[in-house]
Design a protein that fits this description.
Blueprint (H helix, E strand, L loop, with lengths): L4 E2 L4 E4 L2 E5 L3 E2 L2 H4 L2 H33 L11 H5 L17 E5 L3 H8 L5 E5 L8 H15 L4 E3 L5 E3 L7 E5 L6 E8 L5 E5 H19 L5 E4 L5 H18 L7 E6 L2 H4 L2 H7 L4 E6 L1 H12 L19 H16 L3 E6 L9 H21 L3 E4 L5 H12 L17 H5 L9 H19 L5 E3 L2 E3 L1 H16 L12 H14 L8 H13 L8 H9 L4
Parallel strand pairs: 5-6, 5-16, 6-9, 12-13, 13-14, 14-15, 15-16
Antiparallel strand pairs: 1-4, 2-3, 3-10, 7-8, 10-11, 17-18
Helix pairs in contact: 2-6, 2-7, 5-6, 7-9, 10-16, 12-13, 15-16, 15-17, 15-18, 16-18, 17-18
């Protein structure tokens, strides 16, 4: 959706503070960046931007403590919340009663229409890991959602193919805003002390979507629903809950109308599932097992703690290894005890319509993954491709039948200790193929991300920012923990530099490609002495925004 550029500089104020749009105002952007919508987003920043910074500082302290030998544990100060058997979460809102298969994907017009026609029960409309946060993707994704919710969305491809929503029943939309750590450089906020800063990506994504669409969603028999990414503590969940309560009051809808599903995709959050549910209880529908970011979080937090915490090739870190089993089974038990849905994660395997063998393997892998999740008690799961919906649906239908969920499976048989969550020993080596694969996937993904693609099919796997994080963080850890391949070759910066050179030599170069920038980012986040908390932070600031 390429738009001609016009002037920027649209501004709004809240209690004397300013929110200014500094990104280009292209065609129809004024339908999203309205004065009233910007005033609402300004009000969110006025009330919650300071607390956001406090929570991010808490993350840094906790990561420092874990790195210095203080393992996470179940909190003593919140034991009363875990031990109280009486409280429950709000649960499913209208349209969220049956979540057995959810499709995930970015919010560009074509992908929006494909998702709405997919036959899934829910669509995770992703403004986070599956979206490269270019200014165009951020605002035009909001336009896609606005039009789709009103039944007005169509799209014609450059080749002249027309796309439109034809499904009789479309999936319930659950929108995922960016995590607390991400900023929106094209909107600036000035606080009460006159300090100017980039706006919060979370508050921008949530605020614009909620302000424009909450009432239309309610009128359509559903509601404003959200997936919350990268949560690390119950205090972060409480911040979101306060945002929700303020927002409901701001536009005059009943308290508890919003429903959120929290991705448990960080190691610290795995120790606070009860507490996260409790803080969000009036607005909470469930938890999701965000497997790829969870693996990344393990590596990130334990990257410097010695050989005991080094994971093997990414392909060997499956959902059946003990620490991943412990995490997912605890999630199901915790959810069902509180009346919350437990939603499974996404297998990376995707079909290839031009290769029947690849497609057959993808169906086999996905069927096994979803059969395990349904058998473990999950109430639903994710897929990344419409062709996988029947496979996933069949596995959940076999367990659920006509029931919309299996909250009655309390999983009293599950007992998970802190040691279980931290036992990451797998006992397999790092291989040359594993190192090469990480370098190749990360560089190819980053190159696509810099061109505005956030979800990319690479080697018949669906890659997004989370899987790229695993790839680069493993390289960093293997280097700093002096890992060797089976033939004794040490994994050093020099060794990886050689692989980067080979990847660039083999890359399909073209005018305007971003392979050189992708390699530069990879060197910074995988080979540098310091470890950036997220690769998207330097990539966004240095290579995405400046290039627009």
């Amino acid at each position: 959706m390429t738009r001609p550029s016009t002037s920027s500089g649209r501004a709004a104020t809240s209690a004397g503070r300013a929110l200014e749009v500094v990104g280009a105002m292209r065609t129809r952007y004024d339908e999203i960046l309205t004065p009233d919508a910007l005033a609402f987003v300004a009000a969110l920043h006025e009330r919650f931007a300071g607390r956001r910074h406090d929570r991010l500082a808490d993350r840094m302290r906790r990561r420092f403590e874990i790195g210095n030998g203080h393992d996470p544990r179940f909190r003593d100060d919140t034991a009363h919340i875990r031990e109280d058997t009486q409280w429950r979460v709000a649960g499913a809102g209208p349209g969220l009663e049956d979540r057995r298969v959810e499709i995930t994907g970015p919010t560009d017009p074509k992908m929006t229409i494909n998702a709405l026609n997919s036959g899934a029960k829910v669509w995770l409309a992703d403004q986070e890991d599956a979206t490269s946060p270019t200014w165009g993707n951020v605002i035009e994704g909001q336009l896609s959602l606005r039009d789709a919710i009103r039944g007005e969305l169509t799209f014609t491809s450059p080749e002249g193919k027309r796309y439109e929503v034809t499904a009789e029943r479309t999936p319930t939309i659950v929108m995922r805003p960016r995590g607390w750590h991400l900023t929106e450089a094209h909107i600036r906020f000035t606080d009460r002390l006159g300090r100017q800063m980039a706006a919060s990506g979370s508050l921008v994504d949530f605020g614009l979507y909620f302000f424009h669409n909450a009432q239309a969603l309610i009128d359509g028999g559903r509601g404003p629903y959200f997936y919350l990414a990268k949560i690390e503590s119950s205090e972060e969940a409480k911040l979101w809950d306060d945002v929700f309560s303020f927002s409901e009051d701001y536009i005059g809808i009943p308290h508890g109308t919003i429903r959120a599903t929290v991705l448990i995709e960080t190691l610290p959050a795995a120790f606070e599932m009860d507490e996260i549910l409790f803080e969000l209880r009036d607005h909470c529908a469930g938890l999701n097992a965000g497997r790829w970011d969870y693996i990344f979080s393990i590596i990130k937090n334990y990257r410097g703690r010695g050989a005991r915490f080094v994971l093997p090739d990414r392909s060997e870190v499956t959902m059946t290894v003990p620490f991943m089993r412990a995490y997912t089974e605890l999630l199901v038990k915790t959810c069902h005890r509180r009346g919350a849905y437990a939603i499974g994660g996404m297998s990376a395997f995707i079909p290839n319509r031009r290769d029947p063998d690849v497609t057959a393997r993808a169906f086999e892998k996905v069927a096994a993954d979803k059969k395990r999740e349904a058998g473990d008690g999950f109430d639903g799961t994710w897929v990344a491709h419409p062709d996988l919906i029947p496979t996933a649906m069949a596995e959940f239908d076999a367990v659920l039948g006509d029931r919309p969920h299996q909250l009655d499976r309390q999983r009293d048989d599950v007992e998970v200790s802190a040691a279980d969550l931290l036992d990451v020993h797998i006992g397999l080596p790092v291989t040359e193929a594993g190192v090469r694969g990480n370098v190749s996937v990360a560089i190819r993904y980053l190159e696509a991300w810099l061109r505005g693609q956030g979800a990319v099919a690479i080697d018949n796997l669906m890659e997004d920012a989370a899987t790229a994080e695993i790839s680069r963080s493993q390289i960093w850890q293997w280097i700093h923990q002096d890992r060797e391949l089976h033939d004794g070759t040490r994994i050093t910066r020099e060794y990886v530099e050689g692989l980067i050179g080979q990847e660039l030599d083999a890359a399909p170069r073209s005018t305007g490609d971003r392979f050189d920038d992708a390699a530069a980012i990879f060197r910074e986040v995988a080979l540098g002495a310091d470890f950036p908390a997220f690769l998207t932070l330097p990539a966004y600031a240095k290579y995405l925004v400046e290039h627009e």
